[in-house]
Sequence to fold (275 residues):
Amino acid sequence: MNGWDTEKIIALLQECGDIAIKYYDRPSFELKDDCSVVTVADREIEQLLAQHFDHPENNSYLIGEETIAAYGEDYIQSALNGNTWVVDPIDGTAPYSIHCPLWGISVAYMEKCKINEGAVFYPVLGEMIFTDGADTWLWTTGGKRLPFPFAAAPLNNSWPVSLSQQMVMHGQFNFSNHLSAWDSAVAVFAYLLRGRVLGYIADLKLWDIAACLAFAERGNFVSSTYQGQPVNCDVADSFYLDSTDLQRWRLRNTTVFAPNPQTLEYILKNTNEGR
Fold:
């Protein structure tokens, strides 16, 4: 597939969703070297996405969670300087593996290290969020499309703050807001962007969050590391990409995502990444 075509992306993600649902009741899974979970569905979906996206002869490359380790450095450098699809076949494999619906299939389109478009399909919820140029849309089963309803949670202690696993283990908190850890960035963003979560404190890899960065940019959401640096769709500024980096593909620093500057300041002032 050359370039972003929303109709083709919707159809392809539905096909990926069918694979995920096929295994959903009894997914066979194992632990990778980093102790994260991988299932047969992850691998089968990424193989399908590779058939559509991985065509270096057409300047089309793939950066995917389950296959990136198999590519040589020449391929990766071409991907970072070309037209590249960043995919996570199942973001939230841990909840998927225990039949919890907080997971999704994520695809982002990146040109020369800048994310331009994104889409996430939530098969159990029957929803898809996708961008089309400057717009963001919500697709529901049956083909209905609506402008995505961006909203901000009120700034008070009644709304939860979501955490990635590193913050669960090391973070420090000085507020009474409830804390949640769903182990799926795309699930958190589905709620954050609707105003159902106050903010998200995240330490993630590129494929976990690539599509969500496209959504956040269009919804005018804001972000900052604890060192004061924003994170946006310019991947080279925010992620470790060099082959010598032990944390390659990970955010350079723990990042807070919020709907507005006031909420962002509140979370940053009342939390600490603890490392």
Summary: The domain at 6-147 is CATH 3.30.540.10 (Fructose-1,6-Bisphosphatase; Chain A, domain 1). The first helix runs from residue 6 to 24. The chain has two domains: 6-147, 161-272. The two ends are 42 Å apart (CA to CA).
